[in-house]
Design a protein that fits this description.
The structure holds 2 protein chains of 2 kinds.
Chain A (H helix, E strand, L loop, with lengths): L21 H5 L15 E7 L5 E7 L1 H5 L3 E6 L6 E2 L5 E7 L2 H8 L3 E6 L6 H5 L18 E5 L2 H7 L2 E9 L2 E2 L7 E8 L2 E6 L4 H11 L7 E4 L14 H14 L3 E4 L2 H7 L2 E2 L2 E9 L5 E11 L18 E9 L14 H19 L3 H8 L3 H14 L15 E12 L9 E5 L5 E5 L8 H13 L6 E4 L17 H28 L6 E3 L3 E4 L2 E7 H6 L6 E4 L11 E12 L5 E11 L6 H20 L30 E7 L15 H14 L10 H12 L1
Parallel strand pairs in A: 1-13, 11-12, 16-17, 20-21, 27-28
Antiparallel strand pairs in A: 1-5, 2-4, 2-6, 3-5, 7-17, 8-15, 9-14, 10-11, 10-13, 15-16, 18-26, 19-20, 19-25, 22-23, 23-24, 26-27
Chain B lengths: L4 E4 L3 H8 L7 E4 L5 H6 L7 E4 L9 E4 L2 E5 L4 H6 L1 H6 L1 H8 L4 H6 L2 H6 L48 H7 L3 E6 L2 E6 H4 L18 E8 L5 E8 L10 E10 L2 E10 L6 E2 L1 H7 L6 H11 L11 H16 L3
Parallel strand pairs in B: 1-3, 2-3
Antiparallel strand pairs in B: 4-5, 5-8, 6-7, 6-8, 9-10, 10-11, 11-12
Helix pairs in contact in B: 5-8, 10-11, 11-12
Classes of the chains: A alpha+beta, B alpha+beta.
């Protein structure tokens, strides 16, 4: 049976190893798509609708086309079609400079017949609201319904019930590097694309299909990328537009989205509003759950969220539907559906526990069947000092009040088939690891080097890792669903093992030992039964003559496992005069399986916590019902956490087994409930609507006082 | 942004003569550019000519003596924040400057630019929204989304003045020197700013052919305590939800004079005579300070989303006053 071996036998796996590309990144040497410049390159820009809903009645590109320096221009919408949200694409232009491209956009004549719009869920559902989809009634999709057990009987058995409405707003991905591509036709039939993507092969296939090219004539390169979080799987309208502009002009084109467009059209996490009633028995068992909820994913659907979450409720009924609004569409965003669902469930659990007069952690223990999380509760409570929390919420004295809360989450992350890789050992001793995955930021490049180096007795820096390029024709899947490591690692491991085996076959005659008696040491190969028999790595590879070893691997499911549990504890301080919430500390206990690289695993947990904190305290897409516009499509009023917001984060890599699991997404889930519950514990007033900003805190405190 | 010509200024005389050729917006001045550049990029302003003030000699100096401070309009916000004498004797000013934006912006943003910066209102900053401030018919904040808007002095334009430095200067009784084609004049910083009822399009009395040259601050008496408190959603960079510049002459726990100027709550820095009167001549304690806060906001007229600012402002005033006795 394939295995990663015992922890005590690992030289590298599970240790803290610095990111291979770290130095390039912090010194600015790493080239992102934004940094790619090609000889003769043009700059692309997209004209977008500034109105939320309209018929396009005329479009004339002539004046823009005639502007000196404009080399190509294409319409992206036909006259007679509908604009359905602010930011929708109208036309694209490529010009000698970015400034000319911008000027050209302003010379495009577009005539719109404006239509009534709805940009908030409340407006969309109001009686007499403009209907923005022909196939839905009242701007609502048919609800998905689910029922298990006997809900009425459950409530009859309940000693306490809580009824509440929880809301999370639409939040955008805010990738540091906006979406975009640099495209270059090497000839009429061959396209090279530098893409800011989390799916190199996905973009390749997407472009090939849309441009009617054979897939092997499109090469996509993503050496480094500045964040995707689920929003960068396809070439997008901007990628296709860039390819068409480039073909038309016969020159390379760079087309990156503006920050404003990034907020408007490059995806978002849908909102959630859920009305929920839940009951528990006197001895603290969740017994009944009845939830009706909705969210908006823009003009389409996709606004799913979890509930009930993590905790088992035997009698439950749920009804969920989508609400359509005239706004940019949702895309997958780090643990789609989970953070918002977790916020509601974690708050609800807290409210029920209080009604029962029970410590919320005890209440969780009773209703949690996960042994992993049970252990995490103990560890996390110790780390945060749970005994210090207010036993009576809001009972702290003084202007600044402290409180503690807990939240939970779960995720899959077990990986899947679809990765091809080759490990090549060259006669000069160099080693190459090639596969078509991409580093979305989690450190897969370093993880690959660690695995190969461990297998071959080398250092990670000895391994030349070539990823983020479809050119070599070794496909791998998109980096989504926390699947990358668990998809790639087993293939790399088996490929490296196969290459090692081949090398052993060359070494065995020299050492006069059977192949299965050979082992790798640090830069050596030796005979296990007689350790005096040894060759250096260079001597061994020298035996290869002119022929490199190059081996593929297979996705051995025994090397990975899905299903992780996570728990986080938060301590906050709320300034009751200003309404400001400061998070003092987060303890994040994250079930990780086998952490290939403990350092980058901790980084992933830190990043998840920071993103969760932003969703809890700051982030919100603000849509204006008067103008139909997003009022904060920038980084001034769309606020993301900065240095001052980031607390002490104790990221605990909670190893539960020796199989690889992805954890890119799960650490952002429990943060919301942990912080929200801590705010309640601090001030004794519950805020059921995110983000928890000073206006909400002050309003809630005033209502409590009154 | 649209094309413009760029002139390096060599003298104030040259600047004012270039300015006097046109009305608002044709010829504009740029120093740090931290505000103007974003206005140009968003097509909020489309000048034909930009005058670069950074080439004016000697206008970035800060000098202090026993009678007071003189700060050139080209002194950077960072220069003010880190100036030892300002930190010691004009604390409210140093604190206000230090609260501005980010180190990068403070390093290039200037005093003159900070005082003359335009509002952050999300309707005003949106090119496609023709609001009252830009010559349209309505202030969209009245029926729209108004979380960051004015609770005092708004009618008919509910922007808030974004400057942190201005409230501090007013609380310190500072004056400001303006150069124009006719020469120089000096007026109180307090008189520099105007409310939309007087002029909905501008935030101050500066004429299109005038330039702010210098700020003069009288040295506070030795028994003065001063503070700048700024409430914001995010540590940095963020503009004030509400801020208080408080300058108090204290005799023990008794407040002899109080200057209380608010930021982030009105279209101009807002001197609260009510808070000042409440505190003056009183022993400062919790009930007096709370009363000062309450008096300051008793005429507040919040919009749909900013009633919280009433409580916030009251609390901040109270906190500032209490700092004078702690």
């Amino acid at each position: 049976m394939a295995s990663w071996g015992e922890a005590s036998q690992s030289r590298l796996i599970g240790k803290r190893i610095a990111r291979l590309s770290g130095k390039e990144k912090v010194t600015g040497k790493a080239k992102y798509t934004f940094d790619i410049n090609r000889p003769g390159m043009l700059y692309g820009r997209i004209l977008r609708s500034e109105v939320a809903h309209a018929n396009v009645t005329d479009l004339d590109l002539t004046r823009a086309e005639e502007l000196p320096g404009v080399k190509a221009i294409i319409p992206l919408i036909e006259v007679g079609r509908k604009i359905r949200y602010q930011g929708q694409e109208i036309a694209a232009v490529a010009a000698e400079t970015d400034d000319i491209a911008k000027d050209a956009l302003r010379l495009i004549y577009v005539e719109l017949e404006e239509l009534p719009f709805v940009v908030t869920e409340a407006d969309a559902m109001a009686e007499g609201a403009p209907q923005i989809r022909d196939d839905w009634k009242a701007n609502q999709s048919n609800p998905g319904k689910n029922e298990d057990g006997d809900v009425e009987a459950g409530f009859a058995e309940a000693a306490v019930t809580v009824e509440a409405t929880y809301h999370t707003p639409v939040q955008t991905h805010v990738c540091l590097e906006t979406h975009g591509n640099v495209v270059e036709w090497t000839d009429e039939q061959n396209l090279t694309v530098w893409a800011s993507t989390q799916a190199v092969f996905g973009v390749r296939n997407d472009l090939a299909r849309n441009l009617q090219l054979p897939a092997n004539q499109v090469r996509v390169i993503t050496e480094h990328m500045g964040g995707g979080f689920g929003s960068k799987f396809s070439a997008g309208t901007e990628g296709l537009a860039a390819a068409r502009l480039s073909r038309m002009a016969g020159r390379p084109v760079k087309l990156m989205l503006t920050r404003k467009a990034e907020h408007l059209v490059a995806g978002n996490r849908p909102s959630m509003t859920q009305h929920v009633k839940a009951g528990a028995t006197r001895d603290g068992r969740l017994i009944a759950y009845d939830m009706r909820g909705y969210g908006t994913g823009g003009t389409g659907g996709g606004a799913g969220f979890t509930g009930p979450y993590v905790y088992h409720v035997p009698n439950r009924r749920t009804e969920r539907f989508n609400v359509a609004v005239n706004a940019g569409s949702q895309r997958a965003m780090r643990a789609p559906g989970h953070p918002q669902g977790a916020f509601a469930m974690d708050s609800l659990i807290d409210e029920l526990a209080e009604k029962l007069g029970m410590n919320p952690l005890e209440f969780r223990r009773i209703n949690d069947s996960s042994e992993v999380r049970q252990a995490q509760y103990t560890l996390g409570a110790q780390e945060i000092g749970w005994h210090r929390r207010n036993s009576v919420p809001g009972s702290g004295t003084g202007v600044k009040k402290r409180g503690m809360g807990v939240g939970s989450g779960q995720w899959g992350g077990g990986g899947g088939r679809g990765t091809q890789a080759r490990i090549t050992i060259n006669p000069d001793g160099t080693v190459e690891a090639v596969t078509g995955t991409q580093d979305i930021g989690t450190g897969i490049r370093t993880a690959i080097a660690i695995i190969v180096a461990e297998e071959l007795g080398l250092s990670p820096t000895d391994i030349s890792v070539k990823i983020g390029d479809s050119g070599p024709g070794l496909p791998s899947g998109g980096s989504g669903g926390s699947q990358t490591t668990a998809s790639v690692a087993p293939v790399i491991k088996t490929a490296a093992a196969a290459a090692k085996q081949k090398l052993f076959e060359h070494v065995a005659p020299l050492l006069q030992a059977p192949v299965d008696d050979l082992r790798v040491g640090a830069g050596t190969i030796y005979v296990a039964s007689d350790r005096t028999k040894t060759v250096t790595w260079r001597q061994a590879t020298g035996l290869l003559g002119v022929e490199s070893i190059s081996e593929g691997g297979n996705w051995n499911p025994e090397l990975r496992q899905g299903g992780v549990a996570g728990t986080q504890f938060a301590e906050v301080e709320v300034d009751t005069q200003t309404g400001h919430v400061e998070v003092l500390k987060i303890v994040a206990v994250q079930d990780c399986g086998l952490a290939i690289n403990r350092l980058t695993t901790e980084s992933q947990i830190n990043g998840g916590v920071i993103m969760g904190l932003g969703q809890t305290l700051l982030e919100e897409r603000i849509m204006d019902p008067q103008t139909g516009r997003m009022l904060n499509a920038n980084l001034e009023d769309y606020k993301v956490p900065g240095t001052f917001e980031i607390p002490e984060i104790k990221s605990i890599v909670f190893d539960t087994h020796r199989k690889v699991t992805g954890v890119g997404e799960p650490p952002c889930i429990p943060t919301l409930g942990a912080i929200a519950n801590a705010v309640y514990n601090a001030i004794g007033v519950r805020i059921r609507e995110l983000p928890i900003t000073p206006d909400k805190v002050l309003t809630a405190l005033a209502e409590k006082k009154a | 942004m649209d094309k413009f010509s760029y002139v390096n200024a060599s003298s104030l005389k040259q600047v004012t003569s270039l300015l006097s050729d046109s009305g608002w917006g044709e010829v504009m001045m740029i120093a740090g550019g931290t505000d103007l550049l974003s206005e140009l990029k968003e097509y909020i302003e489309t000048p034909k000519t930009l005058i670069n003030l950074k080439t004016l000699p000697g206008m970035d100096s800060i000098s202090a003596n026993a009678s007071g401070l003189k700060i050139g309009a080209l002194a950077t916000v960072a220069d003010i924040a880190k100036h030892r004498t300002i930190q010691q004797h004009y604390t409210v000013l140093a604190q206000a400057a230090a609260s501005v934006a980010t180190p990068q912006i403070r390093n290039v943003g200037t005093l003159g630019g900070n005082l003359c910066q335009r509002p952050r209102c999300w309707y005003y900053r949106d090119e496609t929204v023709n609001c009252l401030k830009k010559g349209g018919d309505i202030c969209y904040a009245v029926d729209g989304l108004s979380k960051y808007h004015a609770i005092l002095g708004g009618d008919p334009v509910y922007i808030v003045h974004p400057s942190d430095i201005a409230p501090a200067l007013i609380a310190l009784n500072a004056s400001l020197k303006i150069a124009g084609p006719e020469g120089e004049k000096t007026l109180k910083v307090e008189e520099f700013f105007t409310l939309p009822a007087a002029n909905p399009f501008r935030e101050n009395v500066l004429q299109p052919n005038e330039i702010v040259v210098e700020v003069q601050v009288p040295q506070p008496k030795p028994n003065t305590k001063s503070f700048y408190l700024k409430a914001r959603e995010k540590g940095a960079p963020d503009f004030a939800l509400a801020s208080v510049a408080g300058v108090f002459e204290m005799m023990g726990k008794t407040c002899q004079t109080a200057n209380v100027v608010l930021g982030g709550v009105a279209p101009a820095p807002w001197r609260s005579a009510e808070a000042e009167t409440t505190l003056t001549g009183k022993m400062i304690n919790e009930s007096v300070s709370l009363k000062a806060g309450a008096e300051a906001v008793k005429d507040a007229q919040p919009l749909n989303d900013n009633a919280y600012k009433v409580t916030l402002t009251q609390n901040l005033i109270s906190r500032t006053a209490m700092m004078a006795v702690s």
